[in-house]
Amino acid sequence: MIALPAVAAPMASLDRHGSIVAIEPYAPNIVRVTIAVDPTLADAPPGDGPNAKSDATGWSHRTDASGDVFASAALSLTVAAQPWPKAPTQMERYFAPALPPVSVTVKTADGQPLTTMTGWSMAPHDVTGEKTFKVGASFDAPADEHYYGLGQNQEGILDLRGRTIDCKHNYDAPAGETVCVPFMVTNKGYGIVWDNASDTTVSPGLHGSTNWTSNVGERVSFFIIAGKSYDDLYAGYAKLTGATPLPPKAAFGLIQSKARYTSQQELMDIAKGYRSRGYPLDVMVLDWFYWSRMGQLDIDHTYYLDPKGMNDALHAMGMHSIVSVWPRFERESRYFNFLSAKGWLLKDKDGNVVDGLPVRSDRAGALIDSTNPAAREWYWDRIRDNIASQGFDWFWLDETEPDLVPDGSFYSIGTGDRYHNLFPLLHTESVAEGSARDRPDKRNLILCRAAYLGSQRNGCLFWSSDVHSTWEALQRQVPAGLNFTASGLAYWGSDTGGWQDPSGPPPLHPPLVDPAGATAMPTSYTDYPELFVRWFQYNSFTPTLRIHGQRPGTAIWQYGAAAEPILAKYLRLRYALIPYLYSLGRETYETGAPFMRGLFMDFPNDPAVATIGDEYMLGKAFLVAPVTQQGQTSRPVYLPAGADWYDYWTNRKYTGGQTITAAAPIETIPLFVRAGSIVPMGAQVQSTMEHQPLESIRVYPGKDATFTLYDDDGETNAYRNGQDSKTLLEWNEAAKRLVPSGKSAVKIDPALVKIIAPE
């Protein structure tokens, strides 16, 4: 049965003829609804993920003919009165639901409807020997409602309407790994946080209804977050599940990785190769199988002779390091027997340790049970003493789905089926909390392959997993990333060029990049350098820019002489944009709003953008339209209504509300800037360890504009205590003047201000 934390204190518990409905506000615009037949379960707190305390300040409760009405300054919620149930008809004896009906209607404070929960369900079944229920709820779905979020789904479509989403972590999903973050936002001014960590199916707007069904549970529990804008919804999500920390500034630069660097010498040669060529680089990554045995949590000194010296050398070059740490332990590893004796490994029904996977010939290693707080603490202590002590800066927690599927097995807190989606939150918590305790002055960063409600508070940079190295995979990344960030987790990226060994069908068109000299792929994959260039252009405008993959070489000079100068151009542009991007990261820390944004977030009054998943905003200034087709040299771009737009490359100005054909020769990604934008640009640096002066402040006139330019030391947690610099830049359109102000305002040389004149 469900584990019960300390007793919650709902504002009210209502009895609808045996269905118990608990109403629990968390803020004026956030309210939790819990329904069960057991009053104790109805009154119990939410599961893991939400970490806020309930707060009924400003809420009222009254009863009238419609039912029980709960109201605040932001919304009202009515639990409908239910008549005494009549005797069932002959047909109803067979087909009517057994549960007493419950209807919950949510409106804005001024009476505008948001949503209505029209019914709930509990269907008994056995799961892993546990007598439990499938639980679910249904909501009305107007014909013009659109839905976004629910984590990562790589089926290539942005709007979730009319689809059925299997919201569970699944590395082997056919289109690419799925990740469940059960938070969905709509264009109707509300979002739903579904409070159940088991495998969940969601069908938004299908046949006039939105249905949620979870495989294991004894109650229905969900939160409604209301807001006048999408950013209000993300502020509510952050309040409910935790703020997104500001990553180290290095996270906004280039992160260079490969599966895998076979020796210390190979890794250092790549780092030196960037410096000798004058290319900026911030982080070198040491991926898997650097250890002597999986689960040793050590470094094989046969191939990595002096890891401490390696890290010292990287630091001296202005670089940081990330090292991959896996949650698996081979039977022959030094900690296996200890962990088994402690009961800190995933077990089967007979209490035996689950070892390896039954699929993919991936048969070695047991999973640490990160649902156990003692196991989490032990795990971090070993990372700290065995690996961080060698000078590594940050950690890559791979296989956080986990890859050893827990269904049919047992964690310390219950069945893997009940807690199918919970592991990535608790596992990354081990490093987040341990690092905060033992390295309080060092800002945390974790590369994470999966997520759950609240994972953003652990300092995760997420990526889309081991995707194929194909044009189809690239095309699927764009809407996948937009739904992920729409789930309230801002830092998402993908392996530039794909992770799998490069292999693809023959190109349909002559390759736009000469593959001569490329060593990253087989000679038969002639269009792979073109694919890598397009992927790199795209990732240059995502929250993180990381090169990774299972190929002979991944550094930017290993894709041929024709590709290298194009890649260098975008790498330098990425670094020029770091003042802009870092300021956006600070804004996310303060507001919870993502800065890689589907067009629907910023143009809610333009119905044309509701289903556009191949363009997006990066901050409030840039509209990015990646090229994802082989041989493509132009593409249609819709410019949203309500704004004018500048072509970043030509400064040509367009009126919004139209589709244009944008030029996209191989050296160009279509990129537009909204009129009324301020974009700070930095001077070129080798890494973010260097002080980066401003090279210019670009103003794209057309409307009054503001931008908060932010900076701090980039590495410590002092930013949390106000040790930073903020400059409010205000553009006055009528006066044609930029005025800086605010705390620790940077003095702006007027010569840096470049007012863009439309062509």
Automatic annotation (TrEMBL):
Keywords: Glycosidase, Hydrolase
Entry-linked Pfam families: DUF5110, Gal_mutarotas_2, Glyco_hydro_31_2nd, Glyco_hydro_31_3rd
Domain Glycoside hydrolase family 31 TIM barrel as annotated: residue spans: 244-584
Domain Glycosyl hydrolase family 31 C-terminal: from-to ranges: 592-679
Glycoside hydrolase family 31 N-terminal domain span: 22-202
Molecular function via GO: hydrolase activity
Domain DUF5110: 697-737
Family annotation (Gene3D superfamilies): Glycosidases (3.20.20.80), glycosyl hydrolase (family 31) (2.60.40.1760), Golgi alpha-mannosidase II (2.60.40.1180)
InterPro entries: DUF5110, Gal_mutarotase_sf_dom, GH, Glyco_hydro_31_C, Glyco_hydro_31_N_dom, Glyco_hydro_31_TIM, Glyco_hydro_b, Glycosyl_Hydrolase_31
Family per similarity comment: Belongs to the glycosyl hydrolase 31 family.
Name of the protein: Glycoside hydrolase family 31 protein
Organism: Sphingomonas abietis
